[in-house]
Design brief:
The chain contains eleven helices and 25 strands. By secondary structure, it is an alpha+beta fold. Strands 8, 9, 11, 14, 17, 19, 20, 21, 23 and 25 form a ten-stranded mixed sheet that branches. It has a five-stranded antiparallel sheet with strand order 2-1-5-4-3.
Length: about 600
């Protein structure tokens, strides 16, 4: 009672100054009907107390209380009609009206929205903001974090400003307002977690271990003693307590997290997750895997941490069993290849370091991350369990207290230190109204050396608004297949990878389709046209980021093998038609 009284007497402005608390959340279908909602009375009382502390019921045009489900559904439908779509325009257009999100003239209003709620008893429209909008499958998730009344009033003023966007020298801007609201970030995390549960999409980050004789006893645990080939395999070996629920066929286990499957909205699963992860509206642990494991197994006396150590929230119970650490670097290469003098090619890498640390107790793990110099890595973010105390020219020491299961230790964006894995050009020109001639001339893995291996490479020409009826052409290597709306060229197939050399591949041909139809899809002939490349590279990262297993330290010291692997795949790797139109962004001249 004493603690609760102290909490009640805490000034509202102080208690709402940091962190994230959720007032309410709603899940709607594509017909704007509310399928599920949850309110958090404890947080709502804080909101009302904050309003009262200002000696007013907030601004006259702001919703002082949460709307009913019917009021919210009606307001959401009204916004869709007013803004042209669920997301909205995002910029001020001719249809924008003063007070609307698009009037603010900022694309972030497609993700952080406001609703004008018509209270049934008052008959007036009042603003509800900030609502985090996350669209997953055919569901819309709305999350309303608590903010201070002054922030809500500030947004109401921004919505009525005559000038557009974040004007230079303006007293108030949406960007500066959001920077003052850490609850926005937390609300986005809640929305994404709920969206994954709603659709049954709750994967864990993949870690890959090299199955080779040098692994020794680890081989049996990964393959179930069935003698599979020595190829890198994904692994997420279960925590001992989860062995009955997460074992996959053949010993290659995809995830500790239970699969919800494809079905209608599982309200019980959502209620269970919310009651465990954010029981009073403040997110504590949004890991579905952790919460499911606790629900399934509970706690035992053996789960008590050492007396001198504080158990972190991301490790609700302790691991028992064979000890090991697995690191996997996953990188995705994004590129826009133009082969034009006036437009430079653009290539970037987004990557993450995935980890699984099966260690007993509450140990600390540290190692120097190689390649984290600013020339290669532009954006860095770490898991809450990590500390980065030391920085060097090329190495950065990372220390962390690992959670259970697979997790993303670090995310980054960087530059490709070697050069594009695929260069060349793609040309497509119209021979007649329904026939096109094309030519590919590509070079793969130029400048790449062993151990880098391209495991497969495929080029796809999509024709979304035309139906392919006839194709003619023979590539210099690989095989070709067609579908109703695409031509697919498999340059390198799985099992025939290339290592330590570059190759050149050409592919001339013609393709004929049915009579052209109205061009509603912008990426097609006589508009933008392109080919998309898919590939996978093993052996090393392209950014230069790496981990030396021998440099990994564990405290307290324990004998645990450390495995490390890398995997590079294509993101949006686009070859734009050299002879056609193509989108590009202007870059400033230095």
């Amino acid at each position: 009672m004493h603690n609760s009284k102290q909490q009640e007497e805490t000034p509202p402005e102080t208690s709402m100054a940091g962190g994230c608390s959720i007032r309410a959340l709603w899940i709607l279908n594509n017909h704007d009907a509310v399928l599920f909602s949850r309110r958090f009375p404890v947080v709502e009382r804080r909101w009302r107390a904050a309003c009262k502390s200002e000696n007013q019921s907030c601004a006259d045009d702001v919703v002082p209380f949460l709307p009913t489900e019917s009021e919210l559904a009606s307001a959401f439908a009204d916004r869709r009609r007013r803004e042209g779509s669920i997301r909205g325009f995002g910029i001020r257009v001719a249809q924008s009206v003063e007070g609307s999100d698009s009037w603010v003239d900022d694309p972030i209003t497609r993700h952080i929205i406001s609703l004008y709620v018509k209270k049934e008893e008052e008959g007036e429209n009042r603003m509800l903001w900030p609502l985090i909008l996350h669209i997953k499958s055919h569901y819309c998730i709305l999350v309303l974090p608590v903010v201070e009344p002054r922030h809500l009033k500030a947004y109401a003023r921004i919505c009525k400003r005559s000038d557009c966007g974040n004007a230079v020298g303006a007293d108030e801007s949406l960007s500066s307002l959001l920077l003052d609201l850490p609850s926005i970030t937390g609300a986005f995390m809640v929305a994404h977690a709920i969206g994954d549960i709603v659709t049954g999409d709750v994967p864990e980050p993949e870690v890959v271990v090299s199955v080779s004789p040098s692994v020794g006893g680890l081989l049996d645990s990964l393959t179930g003693s069935i003698g599979i080939s020595a190829r890198a395999k994904p692994v997420a070996a279960p925590v001992a307590a989860l062995s009955t629920s997460s074992t996959a066929l053949g010993g290659a286990i995809a995830s500790d997290a239970p699969k919800i499957g494809s079905r209608l909205l599982d309200k019980d699963a959502i209620r269970t997750f919310i009651s465990s992860s954010m029981p009073f509206g403040t997110p504590l642990d949004l890991s579905y895997s952790n919460i499911s494991a606790i629900k399934l197994n509970g706690f035992a006396s053996s789960d008590l941490p050492p007396a001198d150590r504080k158990q972190p929230a991301w490790k609700p119970y302790l691991y028992k069993g064979r000890q090991r650490i697995i690191f996997t670097i996953h990188e995705a290469v994004h590129a826009a290849m133009y082969d034009r003098d006036e437009i430079p090619d653009v290539i970037s890498i987004s990557g993450q370091v995935n980890c699984r640390a099966e260690l007993e107790g509450l140990p600390d793990v540290s190692f120097p991350m190689i390649g984290l110099d600013t020339a290669r890595s532009e954006v860095l973010s770490f898991h809450p369990c990590a500390q980065v105390p030391e920085q060097g020219v090329d190495k950065q020491v990372v220390m962390f207290s690992p959670p259970l299961g697979n997790f993303v230790l670090m995310r980054y964006q960087g530059l490709c230190g070697i050069g594009p894995p695929i260069t060349g050009f793609y040309q497509l020109s119209m021979v007649s109204e329904n026939e096109g001639a094309f030519l590919f001339k590509l070079r793969l893995m130029e400048g790449y050396r062993s151990p880098l291996t391209m495991e497969f490479c495929t080029v796809t020409m999509p024709f979304p608004r035309r139906r392919v009826v006839l194709f003619d052409g023979t590539p210099s290597m690989g095989t070709v297949s067609t579908t109703e709306h695409s031509v697919e060229w498999k340059i390198i197939t799985s099992g025939r990878g290339i290592t330590g050399k570059s190759i050149e591949a050409t592919f001339p041909g013609t393709v004929r389709d049915l009579q052209p139809v109205d061009l509603e899809e912008p990426f097609c002939w006589q508009a933008y046209n392109y080919a998309k490349v898919s590939f996978k590279i093993l052996g090393a990262s392209l950014s230069g980021i790496s981990i030396d297993p021998k440099s990994v330290s564990i405290f307290p010291a324990v004998k645990a093998p450390v495995e490390f692997s890398t995997q590079v795949t294509s993101g949006d790797y686009i070859l734009w038609n050299t002879l056609g139109k193509c989108p590009s962004a202007a870059t400033p001249k230095v």
